[in-house]
Fold:
Amino acid sequence: MKRFCVRYWLSITLVSGAAVCILLIGFTPAGQRLAWVALNRLHGDSTVSADALHAAQSRLRQAVGDDELVLPLPDARIVIDKSERRLSLYDGERLIKTYRVGLGSHSEGDKQREGDRRTPTGNYHVCTRLKRSQYHLFLGLNYPNADDARIALSENHIGAELAAELERAEKNHKQPAWDTALGGAIGIHGGGCKYDWTLGCIALEDFAIEELWVSTRYWTPVRIEE
Structure:
């Protein structure tokens, strides 16, 4: 009986201690970001069917009046206007379609650090494509990129070693580190766009992210303007 009680109280202590640690971590910006990434990985949405993506292709072809529209677009690029809450999808200079977007909940200004809930501005690329995501589909952007690294280094927000690592990631078309003081895991995803609610991502309606998914490839350029 005594042995059982000791084991019982030891288990309660360990569980309580772990819960306290999780709560403490969750209240920090870095902890919030790690929790968000974990949710995307553990609670992914695997319901995006081939039929849904085929329907997205059909909608795009109907929108431009071109039944022969090649998808993914041969020269796809995305331009996001933060002030207008608008995403424009292009094939070269040809405008294919526009969408309303939601931004980070602190929508004004450029992203500078982890946890500031701002959407970055600049020239980025799609560095990862996740079909399992908490928010339907996820096109990850290579924030922080080489430009972000150089600015952060000049302002002493990061060191030279990390700045060089971020520059190498962009040069090699790789996903940059998403766990730095500058933040990360910024991307374009579903979940709705009626208001600014994200931690810095660009949110669309689910049908819209499906259309972007079938239109773009890995390393598609994405320009985000203030």
